[in-house]
Automatic annotation (TrEMBL):
Gene3D superfamilies: Queuine tRNA-ribosyltransferase-like (3.20.20.105)
EC number(s) stated in the UniProt entry for this protein: 2.4.2.29
Domain of life: Bacteria
Enzyme class: transferase
GO molecular function, one term: glycosyltransferase activity
Active site: D89 (proton acceptor), D271 (nucleophile)
Annotated residues for binding of substrate: D89, S90, G91, G92, F93, D143, Q194, G221
Cofactor(s) this protein requires: Zn(2+)
Pfam families registered for this protein in UniProt: TGT
This protein's name: Queuine tRNA-ribosyltransferase
Region spans: RNA binding: 252-258
Catalytic activity: 7-aminomethyl-7-carbaguanine + guanosine(34) in tRNA = 7-aminomethyl-7-carbaguanosine(34) in tRNA + guanine
Length: 381
């Protein structure tokens, strides 16, 4: 059950009650593609840095270790020792990312495994069965994510098929949730709005999926080649046609600035690999802009990554030491950087919720963006 607690313009402050706990929104989902955050981050670490919900990938877990194995191990929560909510994406994004290795038809999509090349078929029913075996809190509907640069006729046909797939997903999930051996019989289903950068297709698709009264709604197919301005425009065009009393999820987005802009336009859920991926390469988020620890000027820097930050890295270690670890290719360096970036994101979401509670989100957003627009690498020379 989702409840809107407060609104400021289109921005929503809400909470989603699930079988695995309550999620306070807006929220950033920490991405653990294969049931682990890249960078040697444990579930204890996630708890310590304020993570509310974790996201894992249906396709990757189906390929390895196999969703049947995860089911035999008691489901994803037990498998990775995580007792808070988990969202699994549907495998639909791989329809986009593995474009050279796939064939789409009405029944579903045939892939080639990125690991060993063996043939995989996945359609709406298969995706729902895999996600039911994983026993995630929230399952995403199976969809096609067309390129932002695709022609309009192709996009319209793709979206029509995605709608038909959504109806099949809902039917299959209803069946799966009624079975005695289903681990999570309270699994939620989120539908996905598609339409590339065609506002009219987005609006019509949003209207149609809203009629299905799902547990939540995502906006997919953004951050895949379009400009930030186009992305914000599509969100503005789409959100009014999605139910305000259901959570909204902007898939695969994004930077801290993207998140602030998304919240202002009515988004509840976000996920992105940026904080972990950038962290593994020494690129760190601070309230005064991004820093690159590989820069030579940090070699003798005794300060933490960010003064006042309470993440595990900043409480104990210096920039100079963490830079040394990264240069020496020690896993600890990547781990500390990933922990800092995820803590930064999770803390920013807490600040956003606090600002919405206080009715001062607009002022907070302005101040946060101005701070992060600085260039600390330049100013500290």
């Amino acid at each position: 059950m989702y409840k809107v607690l407060k609104q400021e313009g289109r921005a929503k402050r809400g909470e989603l009650t699930t079988v695995h706990g309550v999620v306070q929104t807006p929220v950033f989902m920490n991405v653990g593609t294969v049931a682990a955050i890249k960078g040697a981050v444990s579930t204890e670490d996630l708890e310590g840095i304020g993570t509310q919900i974790e996201l894992s990938n249906t396709y990757h877990l189906h390929v390895r270790p196999g969703d049947e194995i995860v089911k035999k191990m008691g489901g994803l929560h037990k498998f990775m020792s995580w007792n808070k909510p988990i969202l699994t994406d549907s495998g639909g994004f791989q329809v986009f990312s593995l474009a050279s290795m796939r064939k789409i038809r009405e029944e579903g999509v045939t892939f080639r495994s990125h690991i060993d090349g063996h043939k995989i078929f996945m359609g709406p029913e298969e995706s729902m069965r895999i996600q039911s075996n994983l026993a995630s809190t929230i399952a995403m509907a199976f969809d096609e994510c067309p390129s932002a640069l695709a022609e309009k006729t192709y996009v319209q046909n793709s979206v029509d098929r995605t709608y038909r797939w959504l109806v099949r997903c809902r039917q299959e999930m209803t069946r799966l949730n009624s079975l005695e051996d289903t681990i999570n019989r309270n699994q939620m289903l989120f539908g996905i709005n598609q339409g590339a950068i065609f506002a009219d297709i987005r609006r019509e698709h949003a209207k149609r999926i809203s009629e299905l009264e799902l547990d939540g709604y995502a906006i997919g197919g953004l951050a895949v080649g379009e400009s930030h301005e186009e992305m914000y425009h599509i969100i503005e065009e789409t959100i009014p046609y999605l139910p305000v009393d259901k959570p909204t999820y902007l898939m695969g987005v994004g930077t801290p600035a993207n998140i602030l802009e998304g919240v202002e336009r009515g988004i509840d859920f976000f996920d992105c690999v940026y904080p972990s991926r950038n962290g593994r390469h020494g690129h760190l988020y601070t309230n005064q802009g991004k820093i690159n620890l590989f820069n030579a000027k940090y070699e003798l820097d005794e300060r933490p990554i960010e003064e006042g930050c309470q993440c595990p890295a900043c409480r104990r270690y210096s920039r100079g030491y963490i830079r040394h670890l990264l240069k020496a290719k020690e896993m600890l360096g990547m781990r500390l950087c990933v922990l800092h970036n995820l803590y930064f994101y999770n803390t920013m979401m807490t600040e956003i919720r606090d600002a919405l509670d206080a009715g001062r989100f607009a002022a907070y957003k302005k101040r946060k963006l101005e701070g992060m627009a600085q260039e600390p690498d330049q100013k500290e020379k």
